[in-house]
Amino acid sequence: MALTKVNWLPTRGQLALLSALGETEFFEPFLKWINKELGADQCMIFFCADGEKVSTLLFKDFNQNASGKKLAESYVTERLYMQDPNFSTLKSSLPGEVTLIRLADLLDDMSLNYRNRYFDEPGFKDKFTVIYGSEAGNFYINLYHRTANFDQLVPRNQQQAIGQLLGLLVSKHYQLNQAQLSQGPLAFLSERERQVCAAVLQGKKSETIAYELDVAPSSVVTYRKRAYEKLGISSRAQLFAICQN
Fold this sequence. Notes:
Beta-Lactamase; 12 helices; five-stranded antiparallel β-sheet; alpha+beta; Arc Repressor Mutant, subunit A; 2 domains
């Protein structure tokens, strides 16, 4: 029997993703991969555990970070996911079910106000959605593009595989690290940044946080500043808003 020569090798980015599954370090290679390989200008990941309430797991606008934070905050805190044409699919997906949805498929069911707020104002031309069902809950993965249609970036015959890969990566990561489901957008901060934000959410002052973490008060200020920059926020009130479940 003739042997078939293998002409495919995993990329460094793919290997980095696999090796970081379940670890805090997962988010850096994941975001780099979807930005570089899939051309995403923004990534939003949400989670629906009970078929009713949606929480934010990750948001990143690679060009306008403040925009990403603003959109994620309004989507959850104002419960605008109730107006999302994908919400019925998100809350009813079965474990192991993978659903791919394109922006063009949604336009007839989308209100003008919703479209203006989440697409026209931030300047998005296309959106590629993956809804992945799991025993823990359902994951809602959204990639947005400002300058191109997704078809121009990934051939149609590859999109189903890309969608399945995205769903598997995200769901397996959170299943391996269940604690990060409750941490929401704080999960992709460093350990110290996350500890400081968690303490801030509990209403603790910088001096108290410094004492409990055994660091200088100035270090607490630095960790908080770095965390806020990554999250695209500038205040404790905004931290509460994006972490609200």
